[in-house]
Design a protein that fits this description.
Number of helices: 9
Shape: globular
Number of domains: 2
Number of strands: 14
CATH class of the largest domain: Alpha Beta
CATH topology of the largest domain: Rossmann fold
CATH superfamily of the largest domain: Vaccinia Virus protein VP39
Helix content: 25-40%
Order of helices and strands: EHEEHEHEEEHEHEHEEHHEHEE
Structural class: alpha/beta
Strand order of the largest sheet: 10-9-8-11-12-14-13
Length: 290
């Protein structure tokens, strides 16, 4: 095995969202976030670990520079060459079962876990696609699915920008009757297919979520700008009393995103915030909370 490039960016918990958003917008495709839940030594701080080929060092450092995140870092970015590591084993020490909502827990496959009588367990290993439960927006979406399932039912469910498929898995275990997953990243869609290999679902590789089918629940956990850009397509997926969960947006962006959907006849029944991130719970204007 050859060596690899390892970059480390350190910031405070308060600036986690800004650094994360900056890296994503700058095109940094793969990074790992560590906080005190993963490493107790990081109380009050968050580390972003970036990985790449040594040959791509210039590209990665330029992406970090373009992200304009230095103003939120507590020290200069570190880049170093590391010896080859068997990551299939080395990363396991950092991950433990994670409760995302009252009834949903994510558990790595190498850990034996005994759930309680009403607990749904998602067995999911960390991968390169977004969505292993560590991010606030993933937790917000799972909490929304859990509450909708408790209040009424999830019914037919569309997961737009599915990533690893973690939200579709949560919807399935909370009673979804049908799953339709879309992604614009072939690698992520491959990961989702593998994670849902024992579950009946339809997978679509596309930029815009278009179909004649309609859904009682639509989830879009992406970023603010694409949410606004595909607002009409997302609204069109809803059944007459369907529910739309929008996340992946900073709390400061919620009003802008909300306005795009209000203009299409939807209304907001809940807005939840966790850290710097928000979830909008919206329905068609003639629908109710469920």
């Amino acid at each position: 095995m050859t060596g690899f490039l390892h970059g480390i960016l350190r910031t405070t918990v308060e600036h986690r969202a800004q650094v994360e958003a900056g890296l994503i917008l700058a095109g940094v495709e793969t990074f790992e976030e560590r906080d005190e839940m993963i490493d107790p030594r990081l109380t009050g701080y968050v580390e972003f670990h970036l990985y790449g080929e040594i040959a791509d060092e210039f590209v990665l450092t330029q992406q970090v520079h373009a992200s304009n995140v230095r103003k939120w870092l507590v020290s200069e970015p570190e880049f170093q060459h590391e010896a080859a590591v068997d990551w299939s084993e080395a990363w396991k020490v950092h991950y433990q079962p994670l409760r995302l909502s009252p009834r949903v827990t994510v558990v790595p496959s190498w850990i034996h876990y005994q759930p309680n009588h009403d607990e749904r367990v998602i067995v999911l290993d960390p991968g390169t696609a977004f969505g292993t439960g560590q991010h606030d927006t993933t937790a917000l979406c799972v909490q929304a699915l859990d509450l909708k399932s408790a209040e009424s039912e999830i019914g037919r469910c569309a997961d737009v920008g599915t990533g690893t498929g973690i939200l579709a898995l949560a919807a399935h275990y909370l009673g979804a009757t049908e799953l339709w997953l879309t992604e614009n990243d072939p690698l992520a869609l491959t990961v989702a297919r593998d994670n849902l290999k024992d579950i009946t679902a339809d997978f679509v590789l596309c930029e815009q979520p278009k179909t004649e089918r309609r859904f009682e629940t639509v989830i879009a956990n992406i970023l603010a700008e694409p949410l606004v850009g595909m607002a009409a397509d997302l609204a069109a997926l809803l059944s007459p009393k369907g529910t739309l969960f929008l996340s992946g947006l900073l709390s400061s962006q919620a009003q802008t995103v909300q306005q795009a959907f209000l203009a299409l006849g939807l209304r907001t029944v809940r807005q939840w915030n966790q850290g710097e991130w928000s979830l909008l719970w919206m329905v068609k204007s003639d629908g109710d909370v469920s």
